[in-house]
Amino acid sequence: MKRPHGMRYGLPDLLERTSREEDACHDRFRSHFGRIWAARSDQPFDEEELAKLSTLMEEDDENTSTDTDTPIGLAIFGQFIDHDITLDATTRLGHAAGNPERIENFRTPRLDLDSIYLDGPEASPFLYDGHHLLVGTDRNPLDVQRVHRNGIPSTAIIGDPRNDENIFIVQLQSLFIRFHNFVVDRIEAGKINKRDLPDAADTFHQAQALCRRTYQWLVVNEFLPAVVEQSVLADYISGFESGKLPGPIDWETAPAMPVEFAGAAYRFGHSFIRQDYRLNDVVAGDLFAFDTFSPVEEYMNIDWKYLFDLDGSSYLKAKAIDTRLASALFNLPFAEPPQNNLAARNLIRGQLTFHLPSGEQTARNMDLEAQEKHVAIAALGMDETPLWFYTLSEAERNGGKLGPVGGSIVAGTLLQMLLRDDGSYIHTCKGFAPCEVFGFDPEQSVFAGIAKALQE
């Protein structure tokens, strides 16, 4: 099996190491997927039918998604979250996965930034310089650190190699690394109030705790409100703050990483992204116009005003969540036909690999009335709707945000992760307010505050 770029160990190495209890990877990486509801072995869909449905999802001149007021940076952040909590390296597209409790998840299903910190300075010293994280190359201080071959930077040295797969996520990886270093410097300079400092052994662990709290706060307060319809999210936020999420799903016994989330609901992000992008005042292009798994040259550095709202007007807007995907996603540059159609891959993976229930069946499982069939489902004569398509269709009818089925699965999974984690901010610092701690402008987003602080 090919070793992904940036990985210190190949996936076979990790699989073997997680089975050895004396190895650090056993506890760090060993977790599994699971199900909220029983598998549906009698799938009412076949691969050909799902492929036909996917062809009706491509955005064109006559059928386009509308722009939202949400900065496109939050869509990139959604991918960053995904890489922080889930990695399925064993299932095969279209082949039944069987019991998901036997499928290894090679990330920790906790919002703990392990894609940034990995195992910390002692176990992952190649990422660190004292209390600071290593970042940049001799050609670009805003790139991530990289292996040098013949004097030229190449493979990224980061906690998750997938975070080098496109210009946007590798620059977000660099942003979080540099934010950690910013926090270390603030602590060492005495610029963070002592009452806000976590009770930790040293400066590194104080900075790590503050960065994790900020990241978790961003998930709850900036990401979820951007993607889940308010009437759905409100009950979940109320339950989160009181310590128990609402039903009908029993979140306390639900798996930490449900396949209903990983294989369907959370894949809403593929509808959230746009076709065209601007990196800075000079560089612009389509989604796949930028190199991946390669050094970032200085002229390609992202000016964050184009991804987050730093000045009220410059940022690019995410698309409404609906059943239309950017055309670039139907011709993935790293795959051959028919595997290069991302919509088909999502549909097949959800229904034929993970044997998920249909959208209508999931709604009934949640004591909800199933929504009316989408016009594309009716046009193909399908009796039921694949769960991923159902969540997008539901959002399409809810103003471009996830509705009762998709929103509940996404919000419930992410918020329950924090409730299960004794070290999360909801347990250790419930009133955590990043703008107060770091002196950011409270009238702007915390992402804007981080980006501006790192530009100074």
Q: Key features?
A:
10 strands; disordered N terminus; globular; 456 residues; two-stranded antiparallel sheet; mainly alpha; Myeloperoxidase, subunit C; two-stranded antiparallel ribbon; 40% helix
What features would you describe in this structure?
With 456 residues, the chain is mainly alpha-helical. The chain has a single domain (30-455), classed as Myeloperoxidase, subunit C. It is built from 19 helices and 10 strands. The chain has helices at residues 11-18, 24-29, 47-55, 73-85, 114-117, 120-123, 167-188, 203-227, 230-242, 259-262, 269-272, 342-353, 359-365, 375-379, 387-396, 404-420, 425-428, 434-438, 446-455; strands spanning 31-32, 67-71, 104-105, 128-129, 132-133, 146-149, 152-156, 276-278, 284-286, 317-319. The chain has a two-stranded antiparallel sheet. Strands 2-10 form a two-stranded antiparallel ribbon. A two-stranded antiparallel ribbon has the order 4-5. The radius of gyration is 21 Å and the shape is globular.
